[in-house]
Amino acid sequence: MGADLRIGVLYGDGIGAEIVPCALAAVDAAAALEDVGIEWVELPMGSSAISSHGSSLPAESLAVLDTLDAWILGPHDSASYPPEHLRMPNPSALCRKRYGLYANLRPCRAYPGVPATTPGIDVMIVRENSEGLYADRNMAVGSGEFMPTPDVALAVGVITRQATERIARQAFAIAEQRSRRLTIVHKANVLQLTTGLFRDVCREVAAEYPDVVVDDKHVDAMAALLVRRPAEFDVLVTENLFGDILSDLAAELAGSLGLAGSVNCSATKVMAQATHGAAPDIAGRGVANPVSIVASAAMMLRWWGNRDDDPRLAAVADRIADAVAATLASGLATADLGGSASTSQVGEGIVQAITKSAGSGS
Ligand code: ATP
User: Fold this and answer.
1) Where in the numbering of this chain does the Isopropylmalate dehydrogenase-like domain appear (predicted)?
2) For residue 209, how far is its CA from the centre of ligand 1 (angstroms)?
């Protein structure tokens, strides 16, 4: 079978080398059942790329990513890079900016069989990825964070109508596919002009989606309400920093950051990336939860199937998502979920569950 899809793989730092292979194995197993051929294109990224190529995301990798529609970005431990690399955008910020991956979709739901702090949680956090309070990606040249003197640090946040309309339309389109409830998350009582503009533009876009029920919350209240009344919320749309923080919170409420998959996308390209980082505290021990990156890979294929109207890719994504749920329901779990299975045992469990689904329509 020839390759239908060429997909990049960047293993990255920390637990990347342990969890990313589980995603590849799950995709290969599910794709084989749908007669989809995959060619994996391995590209350097992270500390090892600094040693071999002098950059955490070398020009050689970018030249290939330019030609791809999809790739899996493993985690990077940028805080550990040598000082001269700390001043540069990290690999994920670089990809998000270079390829215009303006939407970061971060679903968090409690799985049956997994102990969750808030069992009722099932939300999709739609995070604006290109501007907001993340000063590393909101200037054409230089960083929006700077120090006029060693004792004074400033950061510039940017919110534009154009980027807000774009992310709002993405969030409303997702809400239409889910339970038609959307919450705009902002802090317009304090950051009146910036997050106030975000709220107001989202409200304007809401007029295009009359079937969706809209409300809005301050980000601090939202954090409390996710803990107290999670079942009231479905799709949350918010700016970059708030989305980053709320998605880690939601992932832990659902059981573990190790469950949290995500994609970064534009209209034409998609990058699968776990919500969490490189987890250096547990790296190399074979105990990291691979579900986050496996779930991210499934989301990537679903996005691709939607873009090209290819039901085979939706079926591959369904097989992976069903196998993840079945594996977790069986009690096979890594230490973050209270289990004793290794990363590779959970990865193999997911592949076995996919293989078992052969013959079924997924
Ligand atoms: P970043 O800013 O790059 O997202 P971070 O500082 O938020 O990184 P993480 O690397 O995400 O930190 O780790 C936060 C905590 O979650 C750590 O205790 C880590 O061990 C745990 N963790 C992260 N990913 C996993 C995983 N896949 N399985 C188990 N535990 C994880």
Assistant:
1) 6-350
2) 36
Amino acid at 158: V
Domain range spanning residue 324? 1-101+262-361
276 lines ligand 1 (CB under 6 A): yes
Query: Is 76 among the domain residues?
Result: yes
Q: Residue whose CA is closest, atom 5 of ligand 1? A: 277
As given in the structure block, the two tokens for residue 53 are 């190529």
Same domain, 129 and 183: yes
Give the distance (Å) from ligand 1 centre to CA of residue 275. 9
Residue 2: what pLDDT? 57
Same domain, 208 and 270: no
* Separation of CA 91 and ligand 1 centre (Å): 17
- Per-residue pLDDT at 307 exceeds 80: yes
Q: Tell me the pLDDT band of 362, cut-offs 50, 70 and 90.
A: low
3-state secondary structure 152-207: EEEECCECCHHHHHHHHHHHHHHHHHCCCEEEEEECCCCCCCHHHHHHHHHHHHHC
Determine if the pTM surpasses 0.90. yes
Atom 3 of ligand 1: nearest residue by CA position: 277
pLDDT tens for 87-107 read 778 999 999 999 999 999 999
* Same domain for 42 and 63: yes
Other C-beta atoms lying within 10 Å of the C-beta of residue 273: 30
pLDDT of 280-295, one tens digit each? 999 999 999 999 999 9
CA of 265 relative to ligand 1 center, distance in Å: 22
* Structural domain contains residue 292: yes
Whether the CB of 78 sits within 6 Å of ligand 1: no
Q: Is 66 a catalytic residue?
A: no
List the residue whose alpha carbon is closest to atom 17 of ligand 1: 279
